[in-house]
Design goal:
This protein is α+β, with helices and mostly antiparallel strands. The chain has 14 helices and 14 strands.
Length: 427
């Protein structure tokens, strides 16, 4: 049916499908039958009851159920207006992107409150994809409170890999007490107990301490600190100046660190003396080193290798640089395939000094003790009899979470990813 001559085109005709028509109603007074207010905020939003009810069983009950309050206005106590605005965008348009972790955390809480299951899955996936050791405290409360097992599992991986970075995060003070308690139940592979003690103190100082002393705020966490695993210098330089322990407690613990007999320990002192750092095989990580370009397949490269006699030392990796400290446990490479005997795999520093070596008769070389590399320039050499890549070296740049490695490695006829580094990193 056509409209009268000279009349305006109906707004519905401006859109080609129902999704566009629904999206055009977002925050529009057109057909709106609901005003949403947020107590404590000078902010209100126009909405449509049916759209909210279609998106959430909680809103359906609130707006159409037997206990629904009549009237054109609904007040949402405690909901952040900006996050709810994002939520409406999702309800009307179906797909939206998050601007940052903080906004996603806010939306996740709203999605849980209003039982919007698809959005819950979307929020959880985004947080897992953005999780780092530094921003973990921003989302850990949410993972604990909403019992998000997948996000908690990812958090546990990050804590396992980078405990020091987590405990020194500038956002640590944002954790609630239950979340910090939950976090400290994870194995913390830290080189010094001072890291944990300083983290607890930092968290306590961030809580405001209104009418409370620091000791009172963090008292529940002090038994988790293995004071007896500290050196006397660590205890004197870091624990005593904090004022958290009384002079009697501090002197008693200090004498026990020095192994003075028959000195009673205060009740808050953890009796464990062992350091936390452990090179557990389950915490081994791996990163693939792959050359970044292909060499031309000329006649020179037709076979891709030469035959080495007499266990001559060959260069596998050179100019190896690491952005953080890694503890190398294994090197896996197809080129480690000696014709007779075994291959000797060595890691050397920038001066050519040997810092670790092992022998293998196959592609996996495992070191008896972790070999530390950090920042400097390193090389990996192999001495064996058998086929070895030709003299060409290719550049590589590899990243895995906060780990970043660069350098040059032996290249063989178009193959990439021929070396896998197995390592621990507790940065």
């Amino acid at each position: 049916m056509s409209t009268e001559k000279g009349s305006k085109t109906a707004w519905q005709s401006q859109f080609t499908n129902p999704n566009q028509r629904l999206g055009s109603l977002l925050l529009s007074p057109r057909l709106a039958d609901l005003t949403i207010t947020f107590p404590g905020h000078h902010h209100s939003l126009k909405a449509h009851r049916l759209v909210l009810a279609m998106s959430s069983p909680v809103f359906e009950a609130m707006l159409y159920g037997p206990l629904a309050e009549p009237g054109p206005e609904v007040s949402l106590q405690g909901d952040p207006p900006e996050a709810f605005n994002w939520l409406l965008d999702y309800m009307y348009k179906g797909s939206c992107s998050f601007v940052d972790v903080r906004r996603c955390v806010q939306v996740y809480h709203l999605a849980s409150k209003y039982q919007m299951e698809p959005l819950i899955i979307l929020c959880s996936g985004y947080l897992r994809s953005q999780l780092t050791a530094t921003n973990l405290p921003e989302m850990y409360d949410t993972a604990v409170l909403l019992e998000d097992s997948m996000l908690l599992h990812r958090c546990a991986q990050v804590v396992g890999h980078s405990p020091r970075a987590v405990l020194t995060s500038p956002h640590l003070g944002r954790l609630t007490r239950p979340a910090l308690t939950h976090l400290l139940t994870h194995p913390l592979h830290i080189a010094s107990e001072v890291t944990l003690f300083n983290a607890i103190v930092t968290w306590g100082e961030a809580q405001g301490m209104v009418d409370k002393e620091l000791r009172e705020v963090i008292l529940d966490f002090l038994p988790m600190v293995r004071f007896l695993s500290m050196s006397t210098d660590e205890f004197v330089e870091h624990v005593m100046p904090s004022g958290v322990l009384t002079l009697l407690e501090a002197s008693s613990i200090l004498m026990n660190i020095k192994a003075v007999k028959d000195i009673p320990l205060p009740p808050l002192c953890n009796l464990v003396r062992e350091a936390r750092l452990s090179y557990d095989a389950q915490l081994l990580r791996k990163i693939v080193l792959a050359t970044t370009h292909n060499f031309p397949k000329t006649k020179k490269h037709a076979r891709g290798s030469i035959f080495v006699h007499g266990n001559q030392e060959q260069l596998l990796v050179t100019n190896l640089k690491s952005a953080g400290t890694l503890q190398v446990g294994k090197i896996e490479c197809k080129a480690l395939n000696p014709s007779t005997g075994s291959a000797l795999v060595s890691i050397k520093d920038s001066q050519g000094n040997l810092i670790g070596s092992t022998s293998t008769d196959g592609p996996l070389a495992e070191f008896s003790a972790p070999v530390a590399i950090s920042g400097d320039v390193y090389s990996v050499t192999v001495a064996m009899e058998g086929h070895w890549p030709r003299g060409d070296l290719g550049d590589f740049l590899a990243t895995e979470d906060e780990v970043r490695l660069s350098g040059r490695m032996a290249y063989t006829e178009g193959r990439s990813g021929s070396l896998i580094l197995h390592f621990w990193a507790f940065n």
